[in-house]
Amino acid sequence: MNYQFDKVSVLVVEDNQPMLELMKSILTTFGITEIYSAKNGDEGFKAFCTHKPDLVISDWMMRPVDGISLTRRIRNDPSSPNQFSPVILMSGFTEKRRVMQARDVGVTEFLVKPFNARDLYRRISSIIEKPRQFVRSEDFFGPDRRRKVPDDFSGPHRRIEDKVKENQALIG
Known about the structure:
The chain has a single domain, classed as Response regulator (Rossmann fold). The chain is an alpha/beta fold. It is 40% helix and 19% strand. Helix 2 (41-51) runs parallel beside helix 3.
């Protein structure tokens, strides 16, 4: 599906100037005209609060403040103008622990470098077509980390512990 992005605003947080220019170019080809930029997470949060973009795309590895810390601030800082803003985090590091860390701070989508325009478009489309509910708990605020409902699920409880508790209640 093709979208009209002419009314969408995007903040790109990237410390590598050539990569920043490439991102702006790709977003422009999508029809996005309102693009803000910052060179690290600290500048990014200030720009986020000032411009209130519809979408944030951030690199992970930046100094002094990285993309993980930026996402954490967007999700949890009381001065954040929109804790529900979608965040796409870019990284060349794809180890499972890193992807899980990004998920666990509230990143909406993860984009592996190097990527092409189609990869970025798919992430943005996913945010539009499959929005996830936000979850708040003691130690997490962000999009629901569960993406798929198992095909074999047919009851009110999903976790093994729930079934154990249910069985104990019936027995007991």
